[in-house]
Amino acid sequence: MSRDNYEVIIGLEVHAELSTKTKIFCSCPTKFGASPNTQVCPICMAMPGTLPVLNEKVVEYAVKAGLATNCEIEKNSKNDRKNYFYPDLPKSYQISQFDKPLCKNGYVEINVNNTKKKIGITRIHIEEDAGKLNHDDFSGGSLVDLNRAGVPLIEIVSEPDLRSSEEAEIYLKKLKSILEYIEVSDCKMQEGSFRADVNVSVRKKGDSKLGTRTETKNMNSFRSIVREIEYEIDRQIEVIERGEKVEQETLRWDDVSGKTFPMRDKENADDYRYFPEPDLVAIKLSDEYIENVRKTLPELPESRKERYLTQYNLSEKDANIITSSKYLSDLFENAIKVCNNPKAVNNWIISDISRILNEKEMEASEIPFNAEQLGNLVILIDKGTISSSIGKKVLEELFENPKDPEEIIKEKGWIQISDENEIKEIALKILEANPQSIADYKAGKDRALGFLVGQAMKQTKGKANPKMLNEIFLEELKK
Ligand code: ADP
Ligand code: MG
Ligand code: ZN
Q1: How far apart are CA 181 and CA 256, in angstroms?
Q2: Model pTM?
Q3: Which among 125, 148, 342, 362 is placed 20 to 30 Å from 23, CA to CA?
Q4: What are the start-end ranges of the H helices in 111-221?
Q5: Of the bound ligands, which one is closest to the alpha carbon of residue 207?
Q6: Distance from C-alpha of 13 to C-alpha of 158, rounded to nearest angstrom
Q7: Is 101 in the pocket of ligand 1 (CB under 6 A)?
Q8: Is the CB of 158 under 6 A from ligand 1?
Q9: Closest-CA residue to 78 (of 235, 232, 237, 279)
Q10: Going edge to edge, which strands form the sheet with 103-112?
Q11: How far is CA 122 from the centre of its chain?
Q12: Which atom in ligand 1 lies closest to the alpha carbon of residue 160?
């Protein structure tokens, strides 16, 4: 039997690390990449007798995320203990939120094949991250790094509203871009700042009851998430077709074999023995507080997109690509401020920059050059200092070794030849070497002109001014 007889159901739990300067319950820094156990204190090391103090910024950022995803904000919220033992969680419980999350009942709108669809947000709650285990190849043991312990997280739980891996990917990208826009998380997936637990089930078409789900933990690449979902759909259908039942399990994805493996039986909420955190006071928010947070919300991607259509005449497709990432969108706007040429900046971002990001498997946030450098590149081309083909080389260089384009072309000797005598000399040499092309042109084959210009560009390694070449060739051919 084929997939056509089944409906796929997906719900996602996204963990995003908040970009507060300090941790959620102590004043240790949250900066990524420090040497192990250098950003710790008795509180986040879970020394007995220490007391947590809630970081106000964490509440503000979570409320901001809730407002940006159309949630209701809970004015009477609190923290709860979620009890479980794990070697990188020395308290043996995680301070999280159980029955009174800060935000609930929201939605994120996604665009699937030009149709708008709302994906429900069940809840957003705040909690602390755990530490990290580093598996030691030499001793065969594991070493605990508690730098991440106590880094603030929001968990964004979606309704089981997604119906394909494609929808899941679109939803995640949209959610990530919203969090980036409101600047509550840097969402660097390779650093684990944005990761998802992926819940998948299938049911026979027409069934009203949801099928049993599996949950694959801590996925942090879009590509793996899509592969994992596709794999689970096939695996679950096969199990059902064999007449067996899908087990409710927590799974681990292995990117190399492209398969999921069971980690443990799925626990239920009661297994965690949740109870209100006795060391923290309740979180009470006033209407005024919520309204003040609302006022700090910046322009969101949807509205930027609309503005690009009218203000800069971008196509719907280009505007979608650029606003999908705050980094790209900021790059676009700030480069325009420098060069005042929206069309050119648009083209660079949509074609060459996107292509290079793809090739290098980089995220837009990792672009090493800044908007001023991109703007200056556009200016150099507009002024005719370099040709657009040299411009492409400058862009490659900006990715490798970013500095001002003017400096790059000086160093590399890439300045365009625009001296009329010099161009003429080049053109005459090319004509001399290609009598057949002259004859062809005179016989009415216009293509010969393009060939000659191409030859001249080749000989000058792209440095000759193509417009001038064209004119001079024409002049000579008409003689
Ligand atoms: P838990 O913490 O046990 O994983 P949550 O309620 O926090 O439970 O999250 C459950 C997630 O699983 C939600 O995103 C929800 O949409 C999704 N989900 C629930 N039931 C199903 C199902 N049958 N198939 C797919 N996803 C589901
Ligand atoms: Mg879960
Ligand atoms: Zn600390």
Answers
A1: 33
A2: 0.82
A3: 362
A4: 165-181
A5: 1
A6: 6
A7: no
A8: yes
A9: 279
A10: 72-73, 103-112, 115-128, 152-158, 6-17, 194-204, 214-219, 249-254, 259-265
A11: 22
A12: 16
For residues 204 and 20, is the Cβ–Cβ distance under 8 A? Answer: no
Q: What is the pLDDT along the chain (479 residues), one digit of tens a residue?
A: 578 999 999 999 999 999 999 999 999 999 999 999 999 999 999 999 999 999 999 999 999 999 999 999 999 999 999 999 888 999 999 999 999 999 999 999 998 998 999 999 999 999 999 999 988 777 888 999 999 999 999 999 999 999 999 999 999 999 999 999 999 999 999 899 999 999 999 999 999 999 999 999 999 999 999 999 999 999 999 999 999 999 999 999 999 999 999 987 666 767 899 999 999 999 999 999 999 999 999 999 989 999 999 999 999 999 999 998 999 999 999 999 999 999 999 999 999 999 999 999 888 989 999 999 999 999 999 988 888 889 999 999 999 999 999 999 999 988 888 888 989 999 999 999 999 999 999 998 989 999 999 999 998 888 888 888 999 999 998 88
CATH 1.10.10.410 in the chain, residues?
420-477
Contact 274, 80 (CB under 8 A): yes
Q: Provide the CA 207 distance to its chain's centre, in angstroms.
A: 35
197 CA → ligand 2 middle, Å: 6
Contact 174, 108 (CB under 8 A): yes
Do residues 364 and 328 lie in contact, with contact meaning Cβ atoms separated by under 8 Å? yes
**DSSP for residue 349:** I
Per the CB < 8 A criterion, the answer to whether 146 and 40 are in contact is: yes
Crossing angle of helices 165-181 and 326-339, in 10° steps, is 50
Sole residue written with tokens 């007889």: 5
Listed in sequence order, the residues at least 6 apart from 134 whose beta carbon sits closer than 8 Å to its beta carbon are 36, 142, 143, 144, 145
Which ligand places an atom closest to the C-alpha of 232? 1
CATH code matching the domain that covers 420-477, chosen among 3.90.380.10, 1.10.10.410, 3.40.190.10, 1.20.1090.10: 1.10.10.410
Determine how many CB atoms are found less than 10 A away from the CB of residue 140.
7
Nearest CA to ligand 1 atom 22: 213
